[in-house]
Amino acid sequence: LPPNPSWMEGVTPQIPPSPAASSHPEGVILNWGATSSKYVGIYRFGKRQNVELENPQYLVEVVSADRGFYLDTEVGKGRYIYVLTGLNRHFQESRGSKNLRVKVKLR
Questions:
Q1: How far apart are the first and last CA of the chain?
Q2: What Å distances lie between residue 78 and 52, 65, 100, CA to CA?
Q3: Cβ–Cβ under 8 Å, residues 67 and 101
Q4: How far apart are CA 98 and CA 17, in angstroms?
Q5: Which residue in 25, 26, 23, 35 sits closest to 97, CA to CA?
Q6: pTM of the entire structure?
Q7: DSSP label of 48
Q8: pLDDT digit string (tens) for 22-74?
Q9: What's the Cα-to-Cα distance from 39 to each of 67, 82, 85, 92, 103, rounded to whole Å?
């Protein structure tokens, strides 16, 4: 994500409300409530990894916030931590949501 422009200091997008993560037969499904943010940033971390939103390698996807869900099919069996962020149309990013922990049991 690009750095925040200095002329937009103090404008912070909303953190996606009511975030949830659960195991799904095809991977992990993430859900969130209605938000004023334009996009949702989805970060995925392994069970023992530090949550570092500043590191772009953990950014899995940026999706339209109106969608309300995301299915992550790029996971294997194991435990993961997800964090969601809100982004506005200038791609300014909110703080992260609470850590969403999920255990994946693929068939």
A1: 34
A2: 20, 27, 14
A3: no
A4: 10
A5: 35
A6: 0.90
A7: T
A8: 999 999 999 999 999 999 999 999 999 999 999 999 999 999 999 999 999 99
A9: 9, 16, 8, 10, 26
